[in-house]
Amino acid sequence: MCDLMPASQPAEKIGKMKKLRRTLSESFRSIAFKKEDSGFDEICVTKMSTRSCQGTDSVIKPLDTIPEDKKVRVQRTQSGFDPFEKPASQVKRVHSENNACISAKSSSAGKESPKLRRHSSPSSPTSPKFGKADSYEKLEKLGEGSYATVYKGKSKVNGKLVALKVIRLQEEEGTPFTAIREASLLKGLKHANIVLLHDIIHTKETLTLVFEYVHTDLCQYMDKHPGGLHPDNVKLFLFQLLRGLSYIHQRYILHRDLKPQNLLISDTGELKLADFGLARAKSVPSHTYSNEVVTLWYRPPDVLLGSTDYSTCLDMWGVGCIFIEMIQGVAAFPGMKDIQDQLERIFLVIGTPSEDSWPGVNSLPHFKPDRFTVYSAKKLRQAWNKLGYVDHAEELASRFLQCFPKNRLSAQAALNHEYFSNLPPRLWELQDMSSIFTVPNVKLQTESGDSIQVCARRNSHGKASSGSKH
Question: Which long-range contacts (CB under 8 A, 24 or more apart) does 386-392 make?
Answer without folding.
Answer: 386/228, 386/327, 386/328, 386/329, 387/324, 387/327, 387/328, 389/231, 390/231, 390/234, 390/327, 390/419, 391/418, 391/419, 392/417, 392/418, 392/419, 392/421
